[in-house]
Amino acid sequence: MSDNILSIIPTDPDWQPTAEAADAAMAVLRRLAPQLDGFVTTEYRTTWHAKVAAVDCGANLERIECPACQNAIDVEWWIDLLEERFEAGFANLTATVPCCGGEVSLNDLRYDWPCGFARFELEVWNPNRDWLTAAELAQLAAALGCDVRQILAHI
Fold first, then answer.
1. Are the beta carbons of 52 and 121 closer than 8 angstroms?
2. From residue 133, how far is each of 62, 77, 125, 138 by CA, in Å?
3. With a threshold of 0.90, does the pTM exceed it?
4. Rounded Cα–Cα distance for residues 108 and 65 (Å)
5. Residue 32, number of CB atoms within 10 A of its CB
6. In what order do the strands lie in the sheet with 116-125?
7. Is the Cβ–Cβ distance between 18 and 149 less than 8 Å?
8. Vertex 141: Cα angle to 46 and 120 (nearest 5)
9. What is the dihedral of CA 1, 119, 105, 114, to 10 degrees?
10. How far apart are CA 3 and CA 90, in angstroms?
11. How many CB atoms lie within 10 A of CB 33?
12. Is the peptide bond before 113 cis (omega within 30 degrees of 0)?
């Protein structure tokens, strides 16, 4: 069986909310992606990572582009870099991209579908919906007290 996971993360990889803000944001997320009768069980998780973690879109990843030159970046290069930096908790997100030699943050690469890096994450497993709207993301950002990004993974 496969799962879909809707993750909400801060746009700043190092940022973490207070427990109260996390609880408020999860309450909003539960309202936006409720458990529906007759569907796959929806599961909700709040995670504070000790170090920055990669939050990817799983099998949904189609393409990665460089923000400096807009050229495609080989997914295998990215996977190798993630494996290399994993042990250090992604303490350094800056990388020299192979396309143009520019220095960019891994968090700023253009992912199709979105990916990111975070020390805090709200997850809805099997949310029974697709993307959140801009207005819904604004509600989550207000509850958390920071700008957010959404990632929809298929594993």
1. no
2. 21, 32, 18, 9
3. yes
4. 10
5. 18
6. 43-55, 116-125, 4-10, 148-154
7. no
8. 30
9. 30
10. 26
11. 19
12. yes
* Listed residue (13, 41, 4) closest to 121, CA to CA: 13
pLDDT digits (tens, 9 = 90+) for 41-89: 899 999 999 999 999 999 999 999 999 999 999 999 999 999 999 988 8
- The answer for 126, left when phi > 0, alpha when psi is -120 to 50, beta otherwise, is left
Q: Tell which residue, 53, 8, 51, 47, has the closest CA to residue 29.
A: 8
H-helix segments, 2-126: 19-32, 75-86
**In whole angstroms, how large is the CA radius of gyration of the chain?**
16
pLDDT digits (tens, 9 = 90+) for 112-143: 999 999 999 999 999 989 999 999 999 999 99
**Spatial separation of the C-alpha atoms in residues 65 and 50, rounded to whole Å:** 29
Amino acid of residue 14: D
Look at the block and give the residue holding tokens 């800056």.
94
Q: What six digits make up the tokens of 139?
A: 């509600």
Q: Cα separation of 124 and 9, whole Å?
A: 12
64 contacts 72 by C-beta, under 8 angstroms: yes
Angle between helices 134-144 and 19-32 (to 10 degrees): 160
Structure tokens at 103: 């220095």
